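The following record pairs a protein chain with its ligand, uracil.
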Amino acid sequence: MTQTIFSLAEGIRKCTSCPLWKGRTLTVPGEGMNTSKIMLIGEAPGVEEDRQGLPFFGKSGTVLDEMINLAGISRKDTFITGAVKCHPPKNRNPSNKELKTCRELWLDKQIEVIKPKLIILLGKSALFSMIGKGKITEIHGKTISKKYFVTYHPSAAMRFPTIKQEMEQDFKILGKLLKKL
Ligand code: URA
């Protein structure tokens, strides 16, 4: 069967392949344009996102929207999802095993369907999931293999003003890259 972004979302809603399903209210498969040239990958749904079933719905969503606007685009021009689709208990980081399971089962397939030209990795879980190594502080604002653009997670920008400034610079660089896509 040919997968679509909708059939993948259906599968995600029923997924019990890692322990995270036990604590979720709703899954967060992702949201946006299913033919977008730009895909953003965050970490995991937070408390608000778990209730709504939508990515970056809470305060980190407001910061992300501000950043996306700095790149000269808006959220509706992108597809946004997470490295995992279920809210981890007590907001803990997803484990390496959970990241791997969710990437192999869902994220890789979402990427195959959307075929983005550039994938923005927001923070260390997304970086670890897709690349397997690297330090955000060293490679943020840079492109890897012409396919991935690395930056911080919006929640880090909310906590640390200096990271917010660096993230703003990253999204301005991203804006220039997007003009060439
Ligand atoms: N990943 C995140 O980091 N946040 C969300 O809301 C969804 C996915």
